Amino acid sequence: MMRIGMNTLLWTENFRTEEHQGLLWKLKNWDFDGVELVADAIPAAEASSIASMLREVGLQCTTIAALDANVADPASKNPMLRRAAADTLKLAIRNTKELGAELLCGPLFQGLGRFTGRGPEPEEWNYAVETIREAGEYAQDLGIRLALEPLNRFEMYMVNTLREGMRFCREVGLPNVGLLADTHHGNIEESDVETSWQEAAEFIYHVHISENHRGVPGSGHAVPPALFRLLQEIDYDGWLTIEAFSQTVPGLIPRLHIWRAYSEHTDDAARLGIDYIRRHLKAGGTD
After folding, report:
1. Which one, of 157, 253, 273, 154, lies nearest residue 211 by Cα?
2. What is the pLDDT of residue 260?
3. How far is C-alpha 236 from the chain's CA centre?
4. What is the pLDDT of the chain when averaged over all its residues?
């Protein structure tokens, strides 16, 4: 049965127990099943208290991570950056376990912010596969699945489509390493979103519901009603997590180019988005 989550990056990059308990209760009252937290930004001592708070509120969670290419990069030719990437991912995996989650997702193929002006070289690709395999084996021992997210060409050059992601996962060769299918990135990179999701169905471990403009789901064209019919047809039974962004998180503005608001209130992406998702799931993807 599909569960609906909300990525907390709409409000904060640094989720903390005392500061954000009220946010969890709001999400619970809006009928969310869980939240998505940034795993590598949580101090180890904080993870256990967040886990207790999630249990108190009655929410489950998934986690997300992304790597800064200047600090950690699975695909780098620099062994120190590859080592840092593996260590950062292992930290995120441990926090994921401590939070009581079972899945860590994100664009883990490469460090973000690095572009070469060409596609991935075989050496870079192989380095990335090796690094993710190491992290995947570590995650497997802790009962955690990894869902790797292809990003659009303006944010990543290593893996842009689900087909490329399938090739990558096959080379990693671990049953707990699959893909995150994101409607925003698919809207840009896939020639036919429905066909690409059908082809990748067995690899899709996680889904991000994210509009073409990153605003309220259903207010753009990247999350059509037919998407929910497709998910039911491929027997997807994982999370549908809303990923939206706003100008309330200054650190994300230059990274994601969020120059203007797409709704009157920040909360709209969550409050209105879950209504849109539940309505179309119930209707079987019809208008």
Report:
1. 273
2. 65
3. 16
4. 93
Q: Where are the domains of the chain?
A: 3-282
* The residue to which tokens 């999400």 are assigned: 27
Stretch 224-247: mean pLDDT, rounded? 92
Alpha-carbon Rg for the chain, nearest whole angstrom, is 18
DSSP class of 32: -
CA dist 195 → 56, 164, 181 (Å)? 41, 14, 13
CATH match of 3-282 with 3.20.20.150: yes
Q: Is the pLDDT of residue 254 over 70?
A: no
